[in-house]
Design a protein that fits this description.
By secondary structure, the protein is α/β, with parallel strands linked by helices. It has eleven helices and eight strands. An eight-stranded parallel β-barrel has the order 1-2-3-4-5-6-7-8, surrounded by eight helices. The chain is globular and about 45 Å long. The model has no long low-confidence stretch (mean pLDDT 93). Bound molecules: flavin-adenine dinucleotide (FAD).
Length: 279
Protein backbone atom coordinates (compact mmCIF):
# COMPACT_ATOMS: atom_id res chain seq x y z
CA UNK A 1 0.00 0.00 0.00
CA UNK A 2 1.23 3.53 -0.88
CA UNK A 3 1.61 6.50 1.40
CA UNK A 4 -1.84 7.73 2.42
CA UNK A 5 -2.81 10.35 5.03
CA UNK A 6 -4.15 7.67 7.37
CA UNK A 7 -0.89 5.69 7.06
CA UNK A 8 1.22 8.73 7.97
CA UNK A 9 -1.08 9.57 10.86
CA UNK A 10 -1.32 5.99 12.03
CA UNK A 11 2.29 6.34 13.15
CA UNK A 12 1.25 9.09 15.57
CA UNK A 13 -1.81 7.27 16.81
CA UNK A 14 -0.42 3.74 17.06
CA UNK A 15 2.61 2.37 18.94
CA UNK A 16 3.67 -0.01 16.15
CA UNK A 17 2.94 -3.56 15.04
CA UNK A 18 4.38 -5.58 17.94
CA UNK A 19 3.98 -6.02 21.71
CA UNK A 20 7.55 -4.70 22.07
CA UNK A 21 6.48 -1.43 20.40
CA UNK A 22 3.62 -1.04 22.86
CA UNK A 23 5.90 -1.81 25.82
CA UNK A 24 8.42 0.78 24.66
CA UNK A 25 5.86 3.57 24.39
CA UNK A 26 4.24 2.44 27.65
CA UNK A 27 7.56 2.76 29.43
CA UNK A 28 8.02 6.32 28.07
CA UNK A 29 4.53 7.24 29.26
CA UNK A 30 5.18 5.65 32.65
CA UNK A 31 8.25 7.90 33.04
CA UNK A 32 5.90 10.89 32.66
CA UNK A 33 3.65 9.42 35.38
CA UNK A 34 1.06 8.26 32.83
CA UNK A 35 -0.44 4.79 32.62
CA UNK A 36 -0.82 3.20 29.17
CA UNK A 37 -4.21 1.74 28.27
CA UNK A 38 -3.05 -0.81 25.73
CA UNK A 39 -5.31 -2.04 22.92
CA UNK A 40 -4.40 -4.77 20.44
CA UNK A 41 -5.93 -3.54 17.19
CA UNK A 42 -8.70 -5.66 15.69
CA UNK A 43 -12.48 -5.61 15.46
CA UNK A 44 -15.32 -7.55 13.88
CA UNK A 45 -13.20 -10.71 13.89
CA UNK A 46 -15.13 -13.76 12.80
CA UNK A 47 -12.56 -16.47 12.22
CA UNK A 48 -11.43 -18.61 15.14
CA UNK A 49 -7.76 -18.16 14.34
CA UNK A 50 -7.78 -14.34 14.51
CA UNK A 51 -9.91 -14.39 17.67
CA UNK A 52 -7.53 -16.85 19.34
CA UNK A 53 -4.58 -14.70 18.27
CA UNK A 54 -6.20 -11.64 19.89
CA UNK A 55 -6.89 -13.46 23.18
CA UNK A 56 -3.39 -14.95 23.33
CA UNK A 57 -1.83 -11.58 22.51
CA UNK A 58 -3.62 -9.93 25.45
CA UNK A 59 -2.48 -12.77 27.72
CA UNK A 60 1.15 -12.41 26.56
CA UNK A 61 0.88 -8.65 26.91
CA UNK A 62 -0.22 -8.69 30.55
CA UNK A 63 2.47 -11.25 31.43
CA UNK A 64 5.10 -9.09 29.74
CA UNK A 65 3.85 -5.95 31.48
CA UNK A 66 4.02 -7.68 34.83
CA UNK A 67 7.56 -8.87 34.17
CA UNK A 68 8.62 -5.34 33.14
CA UNK A 69 6.74 -3.67 36.01
CA UNK A 70 4.95 -1.60 33.38
CA UNK A 71 1.95 0.44 34.54
CA UNK A 72 -0.75 -0.48 32.06
CA UNK A 73 -4.41 -1.32 31.76
CA UNK A 74 -5.82 -3.12 28.73
CA UNK A 75 -8.72 -2.13 26.47
CA UNK A 76 -10.46 -4.99 24.68
CA UNK A 77 -13.01 -4.74 21.87
CA UNK A 78 -15.84 -7.30 22.34
CA UNK A 79 -15.86 -8.11 18.62
CA UNK A 80 -12.19 -9.03 18.66
CA UNK A 81 -12.80 -11.75 21.23
CA UNK A 82 -15.79 -13.41 19.58
CA UNK A 83 -18.89 -11.25 20.03
CA UNK A 84 -19.50 -11.13 16.28
CA UNK A 85 -19.82 -14.93 16.37
CA UNK A 86 -21.79 -15.33 19.58
CA UNK A 87 -22.08 -14.50 23.24
CA UNK A 88 -20.70 -17.83 24.51
CA UNK A 89 -17.47 -17.33 22.57
CA UNK A 90 -17.15 -13.76 23.90
CA UNK A 91 -17.80 -14.85 27.51
CA UNK A 92 -15.24 -17.65 27.38
CA UNK A 93 -12.54 -15.37 25.98
CA UNK A 94 -13.38 -12.39 28.21
CA UNK A 95 -12.94 -14.65 31.22
CA UNK A 96 -9.56 -15.93 29.98
CA UNK A 97 -8.33 -12.34 29.57
CA UNK A 98 -9.76 -11.19 32.91
CA UNK A 99 -8.06 -14.09 34.69
CA UNK A 100 -4.65 -13.41 33.15
CA UNK A 101 -4.91 -9.65 33.64
CA UNK A 102 -6.19 -10.04 37.21
CA UNK A 103 -3.26 -12.33 38.08
CA UNK A 104 -0.90 -9.65 36.74
CA UNK A 105 -2.73 -6.96 38.74
CA UNK A 106 -3.89 -5.30 35.52
CA UNK A 107 -7.26 -3.59 34.99
CA UNK A 108 -9.33 -4.64 31.93
CA UNK A 109 -11.57 -2.20 30.04
CA UNK A 110 -14.26 -3.26 27.59
CA UNK A 111 -14.43 -0.81 24.69
CA UNK A 112 -17.87 0.11 23.31
CA UNK A 113 -18.39 -0.42 19.58
CA UNK A 114 -21.34 -0.07 17.17
CA UNK A 115 -24.87 0.25 18.50
CA UNK A 116 -25.70 -3.33 17.52
CA UNK A 117 -23.24 -4.59 20.18
CA UNK A 118 -24.21 -2.28 23.06
CA UNK A 119 -26.69 -4.63 24.78
CA UNK A 120 -24.38 -7.62 24.54
CA UNK A 121 -21.35 -5.62 25.68
CA UNK A 122 -23.19 -4.42 28.78
CA UNK A 123 -24.52 -7.93 29.46
CA UNK A 124 -21.01 -9.33 29.08
CA UNK A 125 -19.63 -6.79 31.53
CA UNK A 126 -22.39 -7.29 34.09
CA UNK A 127 -22.08 -11.07 33.81
CA UNK A 128 -18.46 -10.98 34.97
CA UNK A 129 -17.86 -11.22 38.70
CA UNK A 130 -14.49 -9.53 38.72
CA UNK A 131 -15.70 -5.95 38.58
CA UNK A 132 -13.02 -4.68 40.94
CA UNK A 133 -10.53 -5.10 38.10
CA UNK A 134 -12.80 -4.39 35.13
CA UNK A 135 -14.54 -1.41 33.59
CA UNK A 136 -16.73 -0.59 30.61
CA UNK A 137 -16.93 2.32 28.18
CA UNK A 138 -20.21 4.24 27.67
CA UNK A 139 -20.87 6.65 24.80
CA UNK A 140 -22.57 9.99 25.58
CA UNK A 141 -23.87 10.34 21.98
CA UNK A 142 -26.32 7.46 22.52
CA UNK A 143 -29.74 8.43 23.85
CA UNK A 144 -29.91 5.19 25.85
CA UNK A 145 -26.62 5.76 27.70
CA UNK A 146 -28.02 7.60 30.75
CA UNK A 147 -30.16 4.51 31.47
CA UNK A 148 -27.17 2.21 30.94
CA UNK A 149 -25.08 4.37 33.24
CA UNK A 150 -27.63 4.02 36.03
CA UNK A 151 -27.75 0.24 35.57
CA UNK A 152 -23.98 -0.15 35.62
CA UNK A 153 -23.49 2.22 38.54
CA UNK A 154 -26.08 0.31 40.59
CA UNK A 155 -24.13 -2.89 39.87
CA UNK A 156 -21.01 -1.09 41.18
CA UNK A 157 -19.35 -1.13 37.79
CA UNK A 158 -16.63 1.25 36.70
CA UNK A 159 -17.41 3.51 33.74
CA UNK A 160 -15.13 5.18 31.22
CA UNK A 161 -17.14 8.01 29.70
CA UNK A 162 -16.54 8.96 26.04
CA UNK A 163 -18.49 10.97 23.46
CA UNK A 164 -18.65 8.12 20.92
CA UNK A 165 -16.77 7.35 17.71
CA UNK A 166 -19.10 5.43 15.35
CA UNK A 167 -21.71 6.62 12.87
CA UNK A 168 -25.16 6.03 14.38
CA UNK A 169 -28.69 6.91 13.26
CA UNK A 170 -30.54 9.95 14.59
CA UNK A 171 -33.31 7.84 16.18
CA UNK A 172 -30.80 6.43 18.63
CA UNK A 173 -28.06 9.04 18.87
CA UNK A 174 -27.50 12.75 19.36
CA UNK A 175 -25.90 14.24 16.27
CA UNK A 176 -25.30 17.88 17.22
CA UNK A 177 -22.12 18.60 19.13
CA UNK A 178 -24.09 20.73 21.62
CA UNK A 179 -26.47 17.82 22.36
CA UNK A 180 -23.63 15.33 22.76
CA UNK A 181 -21.83 17.70 25.11
CA UNK A 182 -25.00 18.28 27.13
CA UNK A 183 -25.43 14.52 27.59
CA UNK A 184 -21.74 14.11 28.42
CA UNK A 185 -22.05 16.75 31.17
CA UNK A 186 -25.24 15.08 32.47
CA UNK A 187 -23.54 11.68 32.64
CA UNK A 188 -20.46 13.19 34.26
CA UNK A 189 -22.63 14.80 36.97
CA UNK A 190 -24.36 11.47 37.54
CA UNK A 191 -20.99 9.78 37.99
CA UNK A 192 -19.86 12.40 40.51
CA UNK A 193 -23.09 11.92 42.46
CA UNK A 194 -23.34 8.13 42.29
CA UNK A 195 -20.00 6.49 41.63
CA UNK A 196 -16.74 6.29 43.55
CA UNK A 197 -14.42 5.43 40.67
CA UNK A 198 -14.70 6.48 37.03
CA UNK A 199 -12.79 7.74 34.02
CA UNK A 200 -13.35 10.88 31.95
CA UNK A 201 -11.98 9.99 28.51
CA UNK A 202 -11.95 13.04 26.25
CA UNK A 203 -9.67 15.69 24.76
CA UNK A 204 -12.28 18.36 25.42
CA UNK A 205 -10.50 20.78 27.75
CA UNK A 206 -13.75 22.32 28.96
CA UNK A 207 -15.07 18.91 30.11
CA UNK A 208 -11.75 18.13 31.75
CA UNK A 209 -11.65 21.47 33.63
CA UNK A 210 -15.22 20.92 34.81
CA UNK A 211 -14.32 17.46 36.11
CA UNK A 212 -11.19 18.78 37.85
CA UNK A 213 -13.29 21.49 39.51
CA UNK A 214 -16.03 19.07 40.56
CA UNK A 215 -13.50 16.70 42.03
CA UNK A 216 -12.03 19.35 44.30
CA UNK A 217 -15.26 18.99 46.26
CA UNK A 218 -16.10 15.33 45.65
CA UNK A 219 -12.67 13.69 45.92
CA UNK A 220 -13.56 10.66 43.83
CA UNK A 221 -11.17 8.12 42.39
CA UNK A 222 -11.14 10.01 39.10
CA UNK A 223 -8.86 9.43 36.15
CA UNK A 224 -8.59 11.10 32.77
CA UNK A 225 -7.72 9.45 29.48
CA UNK A 226 -6.77 10.57 26.00
CA UNK A 227 -5.78 8.81 22.80
CA UNK A 228 -2.14 8.50 21.77
CA UNK A 229 -1.17 11.39 19.50
CA UNK A 230 -4.03 13.73 20.44
CA UNK A 231 -3.42 16.53 22.96
CA UNK A 232 -0.83 14.39 24.75
CA UNK A 233 1.07 17.47 25.88
CA UNK A 234 -2.05 18.44 27.80
CA UNK A 235 -2.22 14.89 29.24
CA UNK A 236 1.33 15.31 30.55
CA UNK A 237 0.44 18.68 32.07
CA UNK A 238 -2.54 17.14 33.88
CA UNK A 239 -0.35 14.33 35.14
CA UNK A 240 2.29 16.80 36.39
CA UNK A 241 -0.47 18.59 38.30
CA UNK A 242 -1.23 15.37 40.19
CA UNK A 243 -4.16 13.98 38.18
CA UNK A 244 -4.38 10.29 37.31
CA UNK A 245 -3.97 10.07 33.54
CA UNK A 246 -3.99 7.20 31.04
CA UNK A 247 -3.23 7.23 27.34
CA UNK A 248 -5.01 4.80 25.02
CA UNK A 249 -2.21 3.04 23.19
CA UNK A 250 -3.14 0.81 20.25
CA UNK A 251 -0.67 -1.55 18.63
CA UNK A 252 -0.87 -4.21 15.93
CA UNK A 253 -1.31 -4.50 12.20
CA UNK A 254 -5.08 -3.93 11.91
CA UNK A 255 -4.87 -0.13 12.10
CA UNK A 256 -7.15 0.95 9.25
CA UNK A 257 -10.56 1.13 11.00
CA UNK A 258 -9.02 2.88 13.99
CA UNK A 259 -7.18 5.41 11.80
CA UNK A 260 -10.35 6.20 9.79
CA UNK A 261 -12.27 6.99 12.97
CA UNK A 262 -9.53 9.38 14.10
CA UNK A 263 -9.32 11.01 10.67
CA UNK A 264 -13.06 11.58 10.62
CA UNK A 265 -12.99 13.18 14.08
CA UNK A 266 -10.13 15.51 13.19
CA UNK A 267 -12.65 16.96 10.66
CA UNK A 268 -10.31 19.54 9.14
CA UNK A 269 -6.81 19.51 7.80
CA UNK A 270 -5.50 22.39 9.92
CA UNK A 271 -6.43 20.49 13.09
CA UNK A 272 -4.52 17.47 11.80
CA UNK A 273 -1.45 19.49 10.89
CA UNK A 274 -1.49 21.22 14.27
CA UNK A 275 -1.59 17.84 15.97
CA UNK A 276 1.25 16.45 13.82
CA UNK A 277 3.53 19.25 15.06
CA UNK A 278 2.03 19.39 18.53
CA UNK A 279 4.45 17.32 20.59
C1 LIG B 1 -9.23 6.82 26.28
C2 LIG B 1 -10.29 6.82 25.24
C3 LIG B 1 -10.99 5.66 24.97
C4 LIG B 1 -12.00 5.66 24.01
N1 LIG B 1 -12.75 4.54 23.82
C5 LIG B 1 -13.83 4.58 22.99
C6 LIG B 1 -14.72 3.48 22.88
O1 LIG B 1 -14.53 2.43 23.49
N2 LIG B 1 -15.79 3.62 22.05
C7 LIG B 1 -16.05 4.77 21.34
O2 LIG B 1 -17.06 4.85 20.63
N3 LIG B 1 -15.19 5.81 21.42
C8 LIG B 1 -14.11 5.76 22.22
N4 LIG B 1 -13.26 6.84 22.30
C9 LIG B 1 -13.36 7.93 21.30
C10 LIG B 1 -14.35 8.98 21.70
O3 LIG B 1 -15.65 8.46 21.65
C11 LIG B 1 -14.27 10.20 20.76
O4 LIG B 1 -14.57 9.78 19.49
C12 LIG B 1 -12.93 10.89 20.74
O5 LIG B 1 -12.36 10.91 22.00
C13 LIG B 1 -13.07 12.36 20.27
O6 LIG B 1 -13.96 13.04 21.09
P1 LIG B 1 -13.54 14.02 22.28
O7 LIG B 1 -14.15 13.52 23.53
O8 LIG B 1 -12.09 14.21 22.34
O9 LIG B 1 -14.32 15.37 21.96
P2 LIG B 1 -14.37 16.27 20.68
O10 LIG B 1 -15.35 17.33 21.01
O11 LIG B 1 -14.58 15.45 19.46
O12 LIG B 1 -12.92 16.87 20.58
C14 LIG B 1 -12.40 17.81 21.53
C15 LIG B 1 -11.09 18.34 20.98
O13 LIG B 1 -10.12 17.27 20.91
C16 LIG B 1 -9.32 17.39 19.75
N5 LIG B 1 -9.51 16.19 18.91
C17 LIG B 1 -10.43 15.22 19.07
N6 LIG B 1 -10.25 14.24 18.16
C18 LIG B 1 -9.19 14.63 17.40
C19 LIG B 1 -8.49 14.03 16.30
N7 LIG B 1 -8.85 12.84 15.80
N8 LIG B 1 -7.43 14.70 15.77
C20 LIG B 1 -7.05 15.89 16.28
N9 LIG B 1 -7.67 16.48 17.33
C21 LIG B 1 -8.72 15.87 17.88
C22 LIG B 1 -9.74 18.67 19.09
O14 LIG B 1 -8.90 19.71 19.57
C23 LIG B 1 -11.16 18.86 19.55
O15 LIG B 1 -11.58 20.19 19.52
C24 LIG B 1 -12.27 6.86 23.27
C25 LIG B 1 -11.57 8.02 23.55
C26 LIG B 1 -10.60 8.03 24.51
C27 LIG B 1 -9.88 9.31 24.81
Amino acid sequence: MGITPERILAGRWIAGPRIEDAMLVASELNKAGIKAMVNYLGEELRDEESIEDAVKTYISLVKRARKNNARISIAVKPTQIGMSIGMEEAKRNYLRILEAAGTAGIFTWLDMENYMYVDNTINLYLWNRRKAMAGICLQAYLKRSVGDLKRITKAEGTVRLVKGAYREGEEISYRKRSEINRNYRKMMRYLFDNSQRFMIATHDKEMISTAVRMNKRSRKDLSFAMLKGINNRYAKKLSSEGMKVEIYLPFGERWIDYAYRRLREASNISLLIRHIFDE
